[in-house]
């Protein structure tokens, strides 16, 4: 059994981790830390866990655990690591952006198993990728791996509301968001940095622009990215390239029909779909932003780090509707 | 032309008033007061008015207007009236709960035209009814008017998110509310007071319970109330009673088929529908909470107060979908 | 291992069964029968199963299985049993209404484990309850079991769209249903029959009306029933009664805070909540209509029939959002 | 007064026309033709019109009208014109695709007032533009008019469900569409033809690709198009170009903040917004697909054809929420 602790247990990604981990056959949850809710049952905050667990938010005790998941939010992991003395052999999976850049000073490995599975298996510290980044990278990496990227890449990706976290704001207000969509951070989204790093890891000389327009969607979970670029392969060649690239990766499927977001909601899967139009190859990529885009991927990384089958505990019932 | 001012111009009900009044043929908007947004174009806040108006949030100047709409929020009108010296002949329509009780000390008339049209026509001060109250009273008043209420009344009513105002909270958060419903304030909702007063105005000896369960719906606009009580009339008699009661009221229709909420969204209408099952008469009542339940009714009251056709400026295109 | 077959594999309840059974540790799916889709991969129809299974829709072969689930739709099971000769020892769980009445001529047991667990454990043929019926009965049965029902029961229940099946109709059209609610079959819904039978099984002399208003909600999954009736217990006594009644039942929890539908979506759970107002006891009951209201309960019944823990394979990750 | 008739009165675009025309001060609706619903009140079909009109679906009588709107659906107008002998001076506005190509054999003028207002004013027959086409063309035409298009254009546009009409299908089913998005007809959508023709009318030598990815959105009304292309103007120059191009057009506004779809829902407006990133100019364009994308634009065309102010009858209350 892997003994795990969760830091920052009251937020969305921690809740999603708990929904997975309480059923994971190889995991024991030793503590769920929360400053704001210490002493309360976790089912008071993550109400859908009522009846599933009697866990209480508690203080962290690093002597009890093999691994901690840090769910404190972007910018807070650095401070956490400075302020806390952690056991040397304690493994860490951080869900924030803080240590995603390759040249980080703590030796964190970028935790996209479909890119870095070998390094992850040997790593002690994992920086879990961003949700948009996961969805988009999975759609592009096979091209980069065979150095097929030549021209600019065009990406439009629409995300569910949970991607923005649980803080209530003007744009998370139901009255605004219901039946509504809007663009934000066009061409400047912070995930462009990690997407670019991952592409360059595989095709270092690629230097064209990645044009990325993120959209706020009026649904709770999921991301659909639509990607296209010029490509001199036929559709069949491209499909074969993608099939080969993902042949050893359990969570990525190539679909023969156009996917929709709900096809992957409440699963750790990524579904890809390809079309060729003239000289453009279009790739559609869909994931659940809280699973393959966050907590599901964190568990997948844990599985890889501890030598388990990467699917362990991740055979999740899809929502379907 | 009626010169009007709006106090508290940045909230939901004020926005809705503006959407109506800028097209009202007999109204000139003299000022839209907002403490928080003074000096800004109103289209910066009510963004759907871009291109329709160049109005700027400004200070109130009561010498310019015949009528003010007070949209400051519940509990704030009393303070406003204490702190401001208003011209004697200035008419007021208040959208808060503050002066809805009959025995209020300022002479406000409860502004449900289908109950009090004659008094409203002579009034200077109107307390605009609550949204749930409007929907439910319109479903019950014909029975009370002919003293047909005998036993308890059972009401379940589901409301759109705009009924809770624009303040972002846990239960207005899209991630929570999307695809979700929940009960709140069962048997204790504050609108029960005005509903009871209106019933007793017509059938003073009625003393049975009104069991009211309010539900938060996952839509933006609209209320559907389902009401039933024992009744010794046939369905035909009941329909005739309702038809007669509303024969002089432009905004209430009796439907022969089951209504849905969207049938009235973006209109000032109330659609009623009746069924008889055993000794129970069931009435379904649907309105748009921001229109017949708030700002549309406020304009209807203004029309009645100033001797206009009550429909003036309220020939609104329904949303349909 | 239990070898199971599914009859009518292309519909909603069959899809939901498959989403559960492919991960159930004690089940082998021997065939998934579909007349309309024979020969196709089931992931072509239930697209969210892409990557999870390579099963193909096939003909039924009753010699391969211990149990069949019949998902053909209401009214079709009778015909199916007449037209097919089944092995004597083949167990059946039927998800239609056909054999829910107690006095059915084939010996089907009404499969609500919280009412009939002992009989289910010995049964060969189970009639799986209706979705509304499950939700409402779980809210009322503890009162009936202690003969506390005295007066009429008032029920309003709102259901997700999947309750109406996959046939595209006017009222399943997104343009109509989105942001909309409407009543249907008020006081006459077909589930009243089984609700009444279950209550009478526990409190045979109860003879008051059950007033039931069903509502079409604008969400995909879930039912929320709001129930009240006169009751001479205190709130504490009522809570204790409910806690005791469900103490041996894994899927029902009594909540201390108002539940919402999403709290149980994608789980087999039922969450109950009680309030007392004057002499009225109000019970809120929420379930996922496709799980505790259909396919999840079918699996729970299978577990009970085969002597497994009733939770086996039903430790499902909630959707949360 | 303009006497108008509607052909094909039971569909979405006809319903939307009726919602506008019954309040239009210069219009008398002489007949609303429907083969399927002849003899029924139109409020039986377009239920939100209950209480607003007593019109009955009837046979067409062309001697009564100055203008007909043809709302029969794509491909049916050609057959209609062959099978019916119409008075010579009868004006026609056709909402189908049939006569949108410039070189049509009946002299239909493409009815985008912001492109062809002078020709429309003199025309007898108008082909009303497509919804996507209207939204996208309004975002691009100022560039084409000053011959600023140089490189490929990249367009992603998401549409509400009403764009697909009222026929119930798999992808219009609420259970599928709710909380879901999906791409369709990428790079091949039929509106590309009219978009290209309109661009070439203004910048005839432009010959680069227009890459267009349409997306089915999970909302009822509205289209948001995100468009970008290389452009050597500064943002300020581009804004000025757009302001100038639309200075005489009442329904198009240039916004200083990022627009969302609901900003224009239930109006005939188009809101545009510009950003510059490197050498890319991004334009966001939002309209209501049933209004500026269909029936609202048809009324605008009627106004122009009959010498009225183009805004007459189109001062519509926005939905806001």
TrEMBL record, chains A, B, C, D:
This is N-acetyl-gamma-glutamyl-phosphate reductase. Keywords: Amino-acid biosynthesis, Arginine biosynthesis, Cytoplasm, NADP, Oxidoreductase. It comes from the Bacteria. It is found in: Cytoplasm. Pathway: Amino-acid biosynthesis; L-arginine biosynthesis; N(2)-acetyl-L-ornithine from L-glutamate: step 3/4. It comes from Marinifilum caeruleilacunae. Its EC number is 1.2.1.38. InterPro entries: AGPR, AGPR_dimerisation_dom, AGPR_type-1, NAD(P)-bd_dom_sf, Semialdehyde_DH_NAD-bd. Catalyzes the NADPH-dependent reduction of N-acetyl-5-glutamyl phosphate to yield N-acetyl-L-glutamate 5-semialdehyde. PANTHER family: N-ACETYL-GAMMA-GLUTAMYL-PHOSPHATE REDUCTASE, CHLOROPLASTIC-RELATED, N-ACETYL-GAMMA-GLUTAMYL-PHOSPHATE REDUCTASE, CHLOROPLASTIC-RELATED-RELATED. Belongs to the NAGSA dehydrogenase family. Type 1 subfamily. It is an enzyme of class 1 (oxidoreductase). The lineage of its organism: Bacteria, Pseudomonadati, Bacteroidota, Bacteroidia, Marinilabiliales. Residues 3-123 form the Semialdehyde dehydrogenase NAD-binding domain.
């Amino acid at each position: 059994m892997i003994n795990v602790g969760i830091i920052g247990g009251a937020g969305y990604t921690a809740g999603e981790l708990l929904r997975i981990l309480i059923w994971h056959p190889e995991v024991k949850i030793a503590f769920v830390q929360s400053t704001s809710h210490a002493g309360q049952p976790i089912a008071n905050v993550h109400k859908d866990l009522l009846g599933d667990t009697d866990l209480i938010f508690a203080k962290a005790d690093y002597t009890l655990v093999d691994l901690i998941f840090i769910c404190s939010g972007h910018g807070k992991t650095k401070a956490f690591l400075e302020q806390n003395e952690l056991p040397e052999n304690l493994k860490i999976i951080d869900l924030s952006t803080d240590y995603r850049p390759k040249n980080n000073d703590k030796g964190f490995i970028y935790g996209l198993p479909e890119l870095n599975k070998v390094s992850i298996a040997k790593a002690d510290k994992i920086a879990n990728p961003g949700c948009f980044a996961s969805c988009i990278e999975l759609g592009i990496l096979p091209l980069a791996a065979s150095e097929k990227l030549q021209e600019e890449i065009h990406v439009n990706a629409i995300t569910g509301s949970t991607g923005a976290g649980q803080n209530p704001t003007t744009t998370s207000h139901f009255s605004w968001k219901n039946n509504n969509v809007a663009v934000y951070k066009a061409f400047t989204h912070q995930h462009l940095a990690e997407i670019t790093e991952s592409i360059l890891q595989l095709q270092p000389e690629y230097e064209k622009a990645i044009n990325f327009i993120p959209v706020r969607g009026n649904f709770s979970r999921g991301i659909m990215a639509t990607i296209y670029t010029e490509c001199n392969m036929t559709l069949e060649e491209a499909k074969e390239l993608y099939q080969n690239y993902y042949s050893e990766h359990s969570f990525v499927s190539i679909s023969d029909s156009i996917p929709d977001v709900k096809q992957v909601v409440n699963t750790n899967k990524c579904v890809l779909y390809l079309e060729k139009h003239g000289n453009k190859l279009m790739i559609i990529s869909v994931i659940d932003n809280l699973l393959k885009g966050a907590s599901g991927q964190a568990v997948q990384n844990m599985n890889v780090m501890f030598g388990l089958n990467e699917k362990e505990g991740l055979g999740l019932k899809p929502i379907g509707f």
